[in-house]
Design brief:
The protein is an all-beta fold and 130 residues long. The protein has no helices and nine strands. An eight-stranded antiparallel beta barrel has the order 1-3-4-5-6-7-8-9.
Length: 130
Amino acid sequence: MLSLNGKCSYESYCPKAGTDELLSQIAAPWAPKGSLQVTTDASGKVTGTLKFAPRVELSVTGCMTNGGGKTPDGIDLTGEGMSAVYRIRGYFVAGAVGPIVVGTVVSVMNDLAKQPIGTSGPFVLFPAVE
């Protein structure tokens, strides 16, 4: 099973609000680009911190998921902080240099960007460039 350790860059997107049907289907950045610092233990438990700015931090917990057959290894995480809660689920991109994870983030409670509960959108994690 793959693991997620060290520092990764995080980007997420959500539907852009608009009155035009086509416009409402366009994704916009959900949050500023972030930095995820995580460790994965031998059992697959993931813990860490997702920072968006000096004062915006989410505690991240969860686990690695085993792929099977045609399903790749992945992550099933929860991000919590500042009264907000998010579900972060994704999969490792096969053959990528360094860990690259793509998936979906869902607002569970009190989205910091004031999106409604249940708003979801794509995210990507990739190796941080120092």
